[in-house]
Amino acid sequence: MGNPIVYAVLYFVIVIGFSTYYIRGKVKNMDDFKSGGQLNWIMIAAGLALIPLGSGHTMSLWEASAGLGASVLFWGIIVGGIFVPLLTLWFGPWMRELGVSTFPESMEALFGRKMGYLHACVNIGAFTGICMGETLAAGGAIYGLTGGKVPYFPWCIIIAYILIMVYVVFGGCLQYAIVSVVNATVMIVGSYISLILVGGWIVVNLGGWQGIFQTYTEQNLSWKLELFRFSPDLLFQIIIPVSVLHIAGVAVAQGPYIPMLAAKSTEEVRKSTFLATAINGLASFPWVCMALIAMAIPMFAAGGAKLSVINMALHTLPSPIVGLLMVCLLCATLSTGSSFLLGNTTVIVEMIFKRACYPEMKPETEYKLMRPVLLITGLMACVPALFVPLIFPVFLWCFSFGIPIFVVWVIGMTWKASPTAAWITVAVAYIVNFVWTFATPTWAPGPFALNMYPVTVISLVLGIVLTAILPGKSGLLKRVRAGEKIELAA
CA-to-CA distance for 485 and 490, rounded, in angstroms? Predict the structure, then answer.
């Protein structure tokens, strides 16, 4: 029935070709590249649903299920049910209300130009790490498409970089939004079809789900199939970290705000909430189920948790469905990776090249810089990906940089903006982050050795206490709603 890679290549040629044809003549300047005021609620919903999805809801999640079982699904429930509504109902509308074009500009409006530059640099570094994780996951899908014939390192990683670039390099945010609508639909439908067919295979070959359950029971691991088993490891290594890191880390990145700032109106952003939440919440289930099945079968588990689902697909599914499943994985990882790369590129061009280095830069020059900078930011993620074996630790490290920024941002937006309090909070939290990551105290028990716990506590305590006692202005939202205009340095 053909090689699965043929179906995948055909899919992406059609989708990217269609999106490129659709945007012809519509992307002529920087504002067009950012798709200012062109996105409706369906495009926003698809883009936002896929941005935090990526390898976090697919490969990272099925890796984690090998050790923690089915209850890791609460990763997806938390992101879809809590984080996405926070973005669409509050954070996105706040940014539109301020009238800024990048998240670092909102930090500048709150705490001064230097704080804006600090966050711009940290944002670029942290989310280059996230893009590295997405490149690894995309490489895994490509490995599956080739039937394992193309080496995962380095060739699958290099091909993944090329695909991520093609995803946005021609049309920026408008192309990303159009492709996201198609990909979100294909991803949900394709992953559930694959799960159903895998279920049919285990009925014929292993006696159905009962055979899987018996395998886990014989190993005293039947608890891995319990969805509501809230073990300490699950609570402190998955549920709490995922909640904090997604809400705090991703909320201060530029990537999620690109589709919301490109919306036709704030009302369109709010209308996207239910659909974005549904897509995001539904996406995790088939991957975790397939991972639990694969890890119960020695021939599929032998390659390790990361490649278990891919190995199972290659042996149990028809070639076209393998292609469809790997397209689903690529849809998730390419969307997340490309959105964060587009966010990084926007920050580099607008905050560093234009604001810091060349304030008189003309819009046409800014537009010309976007594509070459996009290629370079992709390489910044691709090259380290060639040497990183695991995805989850990368997320923990990179997302933690956003926690103190998120705390002082929310406080400054809604309560009181104190530059001194913000600087002290961010500086101390970053020092703690480095110490806890590279020289973890021996007295930190179990999961509390994770860097995000002390960083979160320090950020909250210092952020609240110092803001209360140090001088500052009233919350920025209150001032804007009272008629104050945002003043940014030239």
Answer: 15
Residue 220 confidence class, pLDDT cut points 50, 70, 90? very high
Helix, strand, or coil (residue 17):
helix
Helix (H, G, I), strand (E, B) or coil at 451: coil
Amino acid letter, 427: A
Print burial letters for 103-135: b (CB count within 10 Å at least 16), e (below 16). bbbbbbbbbbbebbbbbbebbbebbbbbbbbbb
Enumerate helices (H) and strands (E) in the chain, giving the number of each.
28, 2
Give Cα 350 distance to the centre of its chain. Answer: 22
Whole-angstrom distance, CA of residue 95 vs CA of residue 103: 8
Please list, in sequence order, all residues whose beta carbon lies within 8 angstroms of the beta carbon of residue 168, skipping any fewer than 6 positions away.
175, 176, 338, 341, 342, 374
> What mean pLDDT is predicted for residues 178-196?
91
More confident position, 287 or 129: 287
Best CA proximity match to 103, nearest among 391, 362, 413: 413
Predicted local confidence at residue 19, as pLDDT: 82
pLDDT at 140 over 90: no
Residue 56: strand, helix, or coil: helix
Does 298 or 50 have the greater pLDDT score? 298
Give the other-Cβ count within 10 Å of 100's Cβ: 20
The first and second tokens of residue 109, run together, are 């409006």
Q: Given 3-state DSSP classes, what are the helix, strand and coil percentages for the chain, each rounded to the nearest 5? A: 80, 0, 20
Q: How far apart are CA 357 and CA 449, in angstroms?
A: 40
Q: Are 37 and 191 in contact (CB under 8 A)?
A: no
Residues 6+ apart with CB under 8 A from 195: 285, 286, 289, 290
Dihedral angle sign, alpha carbons of residues 341, 347, 348, 353 = positive
Q: Is the pLDDT of residue 49 over 70?
A: yes
Token couple for 45: 């919903």
User: Could you give the CA distance from residue 435 to residue 455 in angstroms, rounded to a whole number?
Assistant: 10
Question: Would you call the peptide bond into 154 cis, given omega within 30 degrees of 0 as the criterion?
Answer: yes
Could you report the per-residue pLDDT of 389-402, keeping only the tens digit for each? 555 566 677 788 99
pLDDT 10s digits, 358-408: 888 988 899 899 999 999 999 998 888 888 655 556 667 778 899 999 999
Alpha helical stretches, state H, 51-171:
54-57, 59-68, 74-78, 84-86, 92-98, 103-111, 113-145, 157-168
Residues near 453 by beta carbon (within 8 Å), at least 6 away in sequence = 447
Quick one: DSSP state of residue 356?
Answer: I
Average pLDDT of the residues of the chain: 88
Cα–Cα distance, 398 to 142 (Å, whole number): 25
